[in-house]
Design brief:
Length: 234
């Protein structure tokens, strides 16, 4: 009997949820996060929340804290969900990766996915807004921003139109906009170091980088500040 009542409650709640506004860059509320943890969302809503969690440390930490409420850390969540969320948090660290995926289409860069904000003209847009406006093609250059705790990272891709591109990485303090000195910025491919530079200007340029999947690490004096996953393919 209790099982049938629980099913009825879930059914009514799901119906209510379908009438609520979709995520649009805003933080999901506690109820939505709880439903996500308990596997009560549709596949579309589930993906929207996951996308938000990738770029929002605060909401991600809420999910992880919910998992720690019960001794087994399950709280009724689908198998593997909590492990996945913890992996997103990079073993408990609040540093998340910036993911950038583009596809080279003729002489255009087609945006496949990113967890950062993209500068379009003078306007900074989240990727979800770009998709809603059907903006996905960029010809000469793309500038992407993401905040990592107190650090703001700027990534600039310039298309060389020869299946290669120039990559500029710039880091500064988010609040003061001051340059962060004594940084090491490293470009890796398949866990192998391709190029690595020490900089006091907060900026490094990697020239004529070939298409492929890369990891960019930004390391300060005491710790890793940011990690960027970059994938440019044909």
């Amino acid at each position: 009997m209790n099982f049938e009542i629980e099913k009825l409650i879930k059914f009514v709640f799901k119906k209510w949820l379908t009438r609520q506004p979709k995520l649009d860059g805003a933080h999901p509320d506690e109820e939505l996060l709880a439903c996500f943890s308990e596997g009560m969302l549709s596949e579309e809503e589930n993906q929207q929340v996951k996308q938000h969690l990738i770029s929002c440390d605060d909401c991600l930490q809420k999910i992880i804290l919910q998992a720690k409420v019960s001794p087994d850390g399950a709280i009724g969540a689908p198998e593997g969900l909590i492990t996945e969320m913890k992996n997103l948090a990079r073993d408990g660290s609040s540093i998340l990766s910036l993911e950038i995926i583009f596809k080279l289409k003729d002489d255009l860069l087609e945006l496949i996915n990113t967890t950062g904000d993209i500068l379009v003209g003078q306007e900074l847009m989240p990727a979800l807004v770009l998709r809603s406006r059907k903006i996905k093609d960029f010809k000469d250059e793309v500038i992407i921003f993401k905040d990592f705790n107190d650090v703001r990272v700027e990534i600039k891709l310039v298309n060389r139109q020869s299946k290669a591109f120039d990559l500029t990485v710039f880091a500064k303090e988010k609040q003061t906009q001051k340059i962060i000195k004594d940084l090491r910025i490293t470009l890796l491919k398949d866990d192998l170091e391709i190029e690595s530079y020490h900089t006091d200007s907060g900026r490094v340029i990697f020239e004529n980088v070939l298409l492929g999947k890369y990891m960019i690490e930004i390391i300060g004096i005491d710790s890793k500040l940011a990690a960027i996953i970059l994938d440019i393919k044909t």
